[in-house]
Amino acid sequence: MNFLTTFTMTVHEPVYHIPKGYSSLQVMLRAFRFSRSPITEVCGNMKKFGDTYSALFPGNLQLILTQDPGFINHVLRERHTNYQKSEMSAGRGAQLFGNGLVFSNGDYWLQQRRLIQPGFHAKRLQGLYEIISRTVDESLASFPVGDNIDIYPLMYRLSFRVAIRSLFDIPLSAETMTELSQAFTDVQNFLVDDIRQPFRRLLYPFNGEKKQALERSAAMKEMIRGIIRRRKADTASYDDLLNMLLTARYEDSGEGMTEDQLIDEVLVLMLAGHDTTANTLAWLLYLVANDEEVRQQLIGIAKAATDSQSCIRNDYFHAVIDEAMRLYPPAWIADREALTDDEYGHFSYPAGTVIMTFFYGLHRSSDYWEVAEEFHPGRFLDESGKIRKMNAFYPFGAGPRMCIGNNFAMAEMCLFLQAFFTRFTIAATDQVPELKPLLTLRPDKVLLHIRRQ
Ligand code: HEM
């Protein structure tokens, strides 16, 4: 064997079977279309290529987008140890929001998840229901009635208040609430543009955009640091999430979290906990306003409810919420980066490939859902009216990184439905909300006619 033969035998590159899709030039040419309307663009591509396609981003970043439930299951559950949150999203997010659960990876993520998860068990959340109900009642006391009212900002404020109160059950001044909420929105908006339009990064040294976002985030962290210090000095007892975080102890050392760790986790719970719920409730009210039968059912159940426990467990409430999240999943897409080469079906791809799980497309696929585009809460109920588990349905993700706050969110939304539909009734307008897919899937606005009952 001569040198040349040996050389050609040993250096051949592995051959990957990447799904069909777009080259990096095509990605650049389509960048504007994508950043203006990512959901329409991805849905169009799914139709063109099948349930899975690829896009090669500049810098040789290989993306695979999929709405195939088998592929999603492979990445999030079956082979989850081979995947982590990608640098593209979690890495950029961590720079602004810190290293809390949503943005961390590996051993650190696992250690934090084990520490925090018990606090979100349905049983441990009982104490929070009273705080949630009280906050919802307060918010609804000043709820406006009239024609063409945009309920999105109202749902946003309500969910933000619930998130803050559940974390810190202390009165915060209106200025502190507004300041925190504004800082959150600013930093979040920056993060969305940063992820979706990476080309903007070239301008940061000149336009100061990133510096400003980092300053906003530092200010937010200082506000939370102040609240934590006041709490530590307080001798009263509390049943809120901050108390859960403060009293949680690592199994091995018996120690609690440091102040900086606490701040990161508080920020993440605030971030993950309010936007998602606000979006679901705004889309839900829009759908219900357009469906007389469902509206009457909700009003009937709300009025008949005797206690918060029965609301939280009500199957019909759950079915309506599930159906709203099917059509408008707040987490419309998730991402995972492969740690080593992997394969699924007849596809194979190298380490570093980012798989984007497109829940929005799957939730509306006629392969898995009958009359997929229509609002039918009944599809989530069996013959005896009990909630059914559906396979092609991922509102809270799946696998070990599944939403930690799912029980909390469902309870909050059920308590809201009960409180809202005993006081108000709603009717549709001609307006059809537009999709605004940021970190979560928002409506641009939702105009409804609202009346007191
Ligand atoms: C309708 C409401 C909500 C929806 C639809 C939702 C959805 C999701 C989804 C899909 C994920 C997984 C993302 C991924 O796999 O990349 C997730 C993660 C997470 N959610 Fe939620 N969420 C909601 C409410 C909440 C609430 C109320 C909290 C906290 C109070 C919360 C805290 C978190 C956290 C901390 C994670 C990260 C978990 C981890 O990576 O270990 N979420 N959520």
UniProtKB/TrEMBL annotation:
Pfam families (UniProt xref): p450
Residues the record lists as binding heme: C403
Heme listed as a keyword: yes
Cofactor dependence: heme
GO molecular function: heme binding; iron ion binding; monooxygenase activity; oxidoreductase activity, acting on paired donors, with incorporation or reduction of molecular oxygen
Gene3D superfamilies listed in its UniProt record: Cytochrome P450
Family (UniProt): Belongs to the cytochrome P450 family.
Name under which the protein is recorded: Cytochrome P450
Organism: Puia dinghuensis
Lineage: Bacteria, Pseudomonadati, Bacteroidota, Chitinophagia, Chitinophagales
